[in-house]
Amino acid sequence: MGIVFKQTSWNILTISIAILIGGVNTLYFYPEFLKDNYYGLVVFLLATSNLLQPLMSFGAQHTIIKFFSSFNDKKEKDQFLSSVIFLPLFFIIPITFLVVQFHDLIAQFLSVENPIIESYIWVIFLVSFATSYFEVFYSWSRVQFKSIFGNVLKEIYPRISVLFLLILVSVNVLSKENFVWWLTGLYYLRLVLMIMYSFYLYTPEFSIKVPENYKEILSYSFYILLAGSAASFLIDIDKYMIPQKEAISQTAYYAVAVFIATVVEIPGRAMFQILNPLVAKALNEENYFELKNLYKNSSENLLLVSGLFFLLINLNIDSFYLLLNNQFYSNASLVVLIISLAKLIQMSFGCGPAILATSTFYRITLPFSISMAVSVYFLNDYLIDLYGINGAAISTFVVLLVFTLLKILYISFKIKIQPYNLNSIKILFAISVVYLTNYFIETGFNPLVEIIIRSIGILIMYVVLIYILGISQKLKNLLSLKF
Predict the structure, then answer these.
(1) Residue 326 — left, alpha, or beta (φ > 0 → left; ψ -120 to 50 → alpha)?
(2) 90-125 confidence digits (pLDDT tens)
(3) Alpha carbon distance 388, 399 (integer Å)
(4) Nearest to 438 by CA among 421, 448, 453
(5) Which of 101, 100, 145 is closest to 122 using CA atoms?
(6) Which of 30, 64, 224, 245 matches a 20 to 30 Å C-alpha distance to 324?
(7) pTM (two decimals)
(8) Nearby residues of 308 by Cβ (< 8 Å), 6 or more positions away
């Protein structure tokens, strides 16, 4: 299992660099040079394109992960890949037609509360197209167990692009109005780079013959399309609904808080790039012993590392907000706590989502995803009116908590494995002790100095507790890149 942590370690480094660059963009350049309204606009456009992306891709990226390792010879693999890259066109072509025919109607509907949106409707469609095919070819490279370059393009490239464009805006070379269009063009450059790398790793002999199990492939793609659309709805619906109920500037404050909170899932985002194809391989080979090890180890390791990230974020959040130029962003500190706790729960699930998506009972992902999407919509509709952006965060937390537990119970029922054990309880205990001990401590130092001192103290206390509780072997395994 050295491949998991070898690539995971590189992916963590990649995502950490991306988060650092994104932090500069999100916390300084965006608010400073685009201001609240245009920043909120960019967040809205990208979030809405993410809602459309699963529909545009027709689940092709997940189909590649599930089925590629099930084919035994190159001819079958070539037929499969030749067919699957055309799956997104089933939806891209009719969606293009609808956007052309009903552009004005769509623009009017989306810009009721914020007229600024009306001129950028095409951006939603164009970015969605580029990200859809990017994910397809990224999966192409992941099934070759090569995730690092694609992860650089996925995580670092967009943030470098944004940084570059924001610098141009700051020196008046690029207008705020044109920023969005240039960003759209750079998404297409990323797609071209990903396609070239994928063909470099594996170049098929293209064939018009479809695989023998094409009905199963289409069925899976359709289910994942529906499930993925609902899941994407869950991720970005809050950023879509807030501008419909609040000033669009509130979307910017919420986006910053969510950005900070999602640092908790850095280890998971890094690990899943290589772990998901391994889960699919274990399921295709019916190797349930290997699957159980992947499930338990991924849960413990992610809870251990993500727990530390959770502590560093939430115990430093007040000092962090003091470093910002805009005091209004600090009003979302509770959002950071709620969303980061929800992300910690997700990370404790380990590779559970991959098991659900690539197993023979993958159809259950659809009712789960639809139920989650419906739940979060109605909770948002009610709680945003009551608590504003805090209400949106509460909705996300409640839905993720309830449905993560339901998914764990379902996997346990179907294949008699579950991710938690005594070590999980010990790790949660360590997280709780460190949080409660440090929450009420104030040093009175300069915010930057306080972040550094407090972070060092948190790290030492957490590692010592892990050692005392007898989980030190897990830490040693992580540091030595063993799984």
Answers:
(1) beta
(2) 777 777 776 665 545 554 544 444 455 656 667 777
(3) 17
(4) 453
(5) 100
(6) 245
(7) 0.71
(8) 458, 459, 462
